Amino acid sequence: MVEQFSSRSRGRRQRKRGWTRTAIIMLVGLAFLWFGWSYLSSGPRAGRSNTISIKKPGAKADKGAKSIVSQRTFVVLGIDENQGKKTVKGVLELVYDPARNKIGGLSIDPSTYVSVPGRGFQSINEGLIEGAKNLAAGVSDMVGVKAEGYAVVKGDVFTDIVDNKKPGEIFSSMDEGSVSNGRAKKLSGDLGNIPQARVTFMPLPVKTMIIGEQTYYEPNKADLKRIVMLLWGRQPAPAETATRVIILNGSGAPGIARDAADRIIGKGFKILDVKNADKFTYTQTEILIYDKKLKSRGKTVAKALGAGIVVEKGAAQDVTDIVIVIGKDFH
Fold first, then answer.
1. Residue 306 burial class via C-beta count within 10 angstroms: exposed 0-12, middle 13-18, buried 19 and up
2. Residue 257: how many CB atoms within 10 A of its CB?
3. What does the pLDDT read at residue 35?
4. Is domain 243-326 annotated with CATH 3.30.1130.10?
5. Taking the chain, what is the end-to-end CA distance rounded to the nearest angstrom?
6. What is the CB neighbour count within 10 angstroms for residue 81?
7. Percentages helix, strand, coil for the chain, rounded to the nearest 5?
């Protein structure tokens, strides 16, 4: 009788455990069904991406494109003056990158040869005779990164800026430049707030040239390309085949040919010479084209000057591509 009771009791316990397992399985199944229905009901909708972006801890968005767009590049000239004679103490092409909170710069020896508008290929020191603006344009073209402006500071200030990494002094100590006072004040504060650890100035790699008794330098193009990539994050612009230009003063107005040269600087023209014409009685500016393929370049000159007619000459010659004779219609 006892054994029979024990057998019935065990049977009831086993059935109870069986019902418990069944209930658990059913609850789990219902949970899966509910999660599945929730996922499907919140699936992709029109205009909404179903892509999940996963980032590593601490990862930041790539600022490469934004950085290049926001970069600001200037040419800084350190110039000393003694008894009316000016000499270049040093040159710096500087890039300010606010997106990355850093400053870079290429320090250039004044004995380096560049193509200076109005003077041709010569040393930076010799090119100063054409003015700081033209010299800065020649430096910018040589580096392969177009500068938005230039600033001139005294030689000892320039040395302090480069040696002690003080870019904030550039625009606060500017003697001459293309930057307005308001912009200069803003730039001075912005550059001065960059930590010295985020300022990198590098010397321009050069090759030595001996001309007569003088030693000059020309850029080492392979190393220059590498440093521009390092400082600016991009390749230098390829050297343009500039259209050669001679400008003649045919109106007699002092400095008028030099003013004309300033109008076309930075537009792909290489100014070989600026001098007087055979007479000062030209009433209309003439743009003489010695290669009919360059007629469009002649029109570019006329547009930049705001005056002049394009005249096609005979066969091309080796000295120049275009001659501009400034007339009395140029102002």
1. exposed
2. 25
3. 52
4. no
5. 131
6. 11
7. 40, 30, 35
Q: Using alpha carbons, select from 147, 159, 176, 146 the residue that is nearest to residue 91.
A: 159
Please report the pLDDT score of residue 43 as a whole number.
42
Q: Per-domain residue ranges for the chain? A: 65-232, 243-326
CA gap 317, 65 in Å, rounded: 44
d(CA 103, CA 169): 13
In angstroms, the CA 324 to CA 289 distance is 9
Burial 39-55 (b: 16+ CB within 10 A, else e): eeeeeeeeeeeeeeeee
Question: Can you give the pLDDT at residue 331?
Answer: 87
> What is the residue whose two structure tokens read 């004679």?
85
Q: Hey, which residues does 107 pair with through a beta bridge?
A: 92, 203
**What separation in angstroms does the CA of 222 have from each of 145, 208, 218, 226?**
15, 15, 12, 7
Q: Would you state the torsion angle of the CA atoms of residues 135, 138, 140, 144, taken in this order, to the nearest 10 degrees? A: -170
- From CA 139, how far away is CA 126, in angstroms rounded? 13
Place of tokens 């990164």: 145
* Euclidean distance between CA atoms 137 and 122, whole angstroms: 13
| Nearest in space to 135 (alpha carbons), one of 191, 182, 93 | 93
Tokens 């005979």 map to which residue?
314
Positions in the chain short of pLDDT 70: 1-69, 118-121, 209-216, 239-240, 315-319
CB atoms within 10 A of CB 88: 25
3-state secondary structure 258-322: HHHHHHHCCCCEEEEEEEECCCCCCCCCEEEECCHHHHHHHHHHHHHHCCCEEEECCCCCCCCCE
Q: What is the 8-class DSSP label of residue 175?
A: S
Q: Domain 65-232 adopts which CATH fold?
A: Nucleotidyltransferase; domain 5 (3.30.420)
pTM: predicted TM-score of the whole model, two decimal places: 0.58
